[in-house]
Amino acid sequence: MISKFKTFKNYDSKAFYVRGVLLLFIFFTYGAPAQMSYKDSLLIEISKYQNSSKENTEYVELLLELGLEQRYFNLDSLKSLSEEGLKISEKIGYEIGKANAYLGLGTFYSDKGKYDESLGNLQKALDISFVEKDDTLRLTILNTIGEQFDYRGDYDLALSKYLECIELAEYLENQKMLSIINENIANLYISQKDFEEGMFYYEKVKKINEKIGDAIIMAETMSNMASAYADMGKLELAMFNINSAIKTFEDNRIRDWLAYAYQVKGKVYLKQQKNKWALYWYAQSEILHDRLDDLREEIQLLTGMAKAHLKLGNDSISTIYAQQAYDHSLNLDVLSGIEEGAELLYEIYKNKGDYKMALEYHEIFNEVSGKISRKESKKGLTMLKTKIAYERQKEQLILENKEALAKQKKYVYATLIVLIIFLFITALIKRNAKIQKELNKELILKQEDLERKEKYLYEVDQTKNKLFSIIGHDLRGPIGAFQGLIKLFKEGDMSKEEFLGFVPKLKSDIDNIAFTLNNLLSWGQTQMNGAQTKPGITAIESIVNENIALLSEVANNKSIRLINRIESNTLTWCDSDQIDIVIRNLISNALKFTPKDGMVTISAAEKARHWEIVVRDNGVGMSKETIGKIFDQSNSHSTYGTNDEKGTGLGLSLCKEMVEKNHGNIWVDSSIHKGSSFYFSIPKAKKEYKKTA
Asked: What angle do CA 41, 47, 50 make, to 5 degrees?
């Protein structure tokens, strides 16, 4: 298996609602829920029936839910509790209880690899759901039946059941089940190496998950997507998704999914040829699996560990893990696991020189590979894929025809109205009204065009005035001083030693001129609509480091410490050149207004959909009046720094434009003599399998 199923428990009856309220009461009665597991709360509820009658629906529901809760921790408990629930339900005539008991038994036999027994119990549950007209229960059962076909390799039958589920889930407006089923279909296509179709369904799942807003559901999907990206060779995206998922599972202590996520991370490192790191994460998953009862998921873990040890030359250890994976696959009748395990054991024994055992496993590998290749499921899947494409095209044509018919009706109604008007209005009045209407329309258009041109000319004039003001005031002065010094030196009015004494100041002036010109050109481009924003995945840490290196001399001259606290995983979706300008201006401003022996820090805070970057100094600070003007593009006022540094008054308005072009915001928090903190936000990097149940 390359992905992990999600579990969905169907308990929508009134009795289950009452039981849920009782469990909440227990949670609050016993104190913090974090100190009591859900299983413990169920056991407390069940214990209430120790000395009373157990032949009632609430007791049955508690037993069945406890069984499902034990699925990945003590599988045999799922069977015994389901059988007990079935026995009581039959005695008291509780049909929904019988259906859920058969569902529990079907799940048990599925996890044991006995798919015929599983389907038999699931069919009994499905029959009851039809009789009882419980559509939500029927939806859960149909999806579980689809899983069994998927496990057996009957992908066409699995897809057929999933499509039937989607239709029912849409009718019930059940968003969670829509997410689960679409993810099952995505994993189905990924298992067939049809990555394009698989990712199409994953995109649907992501949109549904955003509506649901459950962080754990999102993390489960990201885990499966990470596994898919690893199979596709997109290892950076795989690592990004699995790291995000692991954090959520660790925070919420979801042990079975965390074990799977660690395993996927090991798989990514294995694909990167980082075998020791792969073993480290496989070991973390193995620790959790020791406390789980989930052999199907353990197959991939054991196979991965065997591969990593084989690549490191640890053939004896690799043999142990490969043999365990092979044995589990035989017990659960997982053909893909048998095939992969036999191939690994063949390679191991061949390396050892044990050609008899190598040949034996090679023959098993060839036999299983032949079975898999002979299956016609893939052909059926392709046919269904074609059918789905046809259904999409048909739906699109129907929609277009409806729109065309609606448009034609509008034209017919409009024509009828015009004809009626013609019957009641004379030709002369019509002619005059038409001429007057056209003249008014033309007049309005000309007036609007004139207003647009007037506004454009005003903006151009303002831009021109600002450009000349900056060039005349902030560039001509330093350049003129530079020319004067050269003239004095050239004419002998200044000695070489005196001239060399001005070199540090000249360098500082030239650096300021270059910085000003860079800002001026960037701002000019934005004003003339020449600067196009081209976003991509950008690491903010590297941009900050480059600018610290660039401005280190300025900082050293003022004995100011420049500190970068941004971590390497701060990935954003932005135009790196534009954000580079923003960061450079903010750091330069901070240095300008920070006195000697001061400190400037750059840090980042992660939010739900964006990163919040802050450049903080302990400089002179600003008044509220100044804060209200600094981002105003029409304000070109420049303030001298603590060492009389000069600027254009353009940098912050340029920063505002650049940040907004990247769908962010910029603001400042400052107090006189306490320093300033400039904040700006930019979107996180775009996030592009765990099977669902």
From this structure: 170
At 261, the pLDDT band (50, 70, 90 cuts) reads very high
pLDDT > 70? residue 257: yes
Question: What percent of the chain has a predicted confidence (pLDDT) above 70?
Answer: 77
- What distance in Å separates the CA atoms of residue 365 and residue 367, rounded to the nearest whole number? 6
Q: What is the pLDDT at residue 492? A: 74
DSSP code, position 475:
I
What tokens appear for 398 in the block? 């129907």
pLDDT class of 689 with cuts at 50, 70, 90: very low
Q: For tokens 């959909």, what's the residue?
A: 609
Structure tokens at 390: 């046809």
Contact predicate 650/517, CB 8 Å: no
Closest C-alpha among 624, 628, 552 to residue 591: 552
Quick one: DSSP state of residue 686? P
CA dihedral 70, 71, 74, 77 (to 10 degrees): 70
Beta-carbon count within 10 A of 495 CB: 11
Q: Is the pLDDT of residue 218 over 80?
A: yes
Cβ contact 118:148 at 8 Å:
yes
Q: Are 262 and 289 in contact (CB under 8 A)?
A: no
Mean pLDDT of the chain: 81
Residue type, 516: T
User: What local confidence, expressed as pLDDT, does residue 358 receive?
Assistant: 86
Question: How many CB atoms within 10 Å of residue 407?
Answer: 10
Alpha-carbon gap, residue 305 to 318, rounded angstroms: 7
d(CA 531, CA 514): 19
DSSP string computed for 101-127: HHHHHHHHHHHTT-HHHHHHHHHHHHH
Residue 669 has pLDDT above 90, yes or no: yes
What does the pLDDT read at residue 536? 92
- Written as one string, the DSSP assignment of 273-302 is T-HHHHHHHHHHHHHHHTT---HHHHHHHH
Can you give the pLDDT at residue 126? Answer: 92
- CA–CA distance, 354 with 368 (Å, rounded to integer): 22
The whole-angstrom separation of Cα 666 and Cα 420 is 59
- DSSP letter, residue 684: B
Is 519 in contact with 654 (CB distance < 8 Å)? Answer: yes
Cα separation of 232 and 190, whole Å?
A: 9
CB 474 within 8 A of CB 647: yes
615: its two tokens: 């450049």
C-alpha to C-alpha distance for 277 and 275, rounded to whole angstroms: 5
DSSP summary character for residue 608:
S
Which residue has tokens 């191991």?
348
The closest of 105, 110, 106, 99 to 135, measured between CA atoms, is 99
Structure tokens at 156: 């066409």
**What torsion, rounded to 10 degrees, do the Cα atoms 146, 149, 150, 153 define?**
-160
- C-alpha 553/C-alpha 692 separation (Å) is 56
CA distance 264 to 258: 10
pTM of this structure: 0.53
**367-393 mean pLDDT:** 64
pLDDT digits (tens, 9 = 90+) for 529-586: 555 788 999 999 999 999 999 889 889 988 999 999 999 889 999 999 889 989 999 9
Beta bridge partners of 602: 564, 615
Residue with tokens 């075998």: 275
d(CA 587, CA 598): 13
Q: Which residues pair with 612 in a beta bridge?
A: 605, 681
Residue carrying the six token digits 């930019």: 682
The amino acid present at 109, given as its one-letter code, is: Y
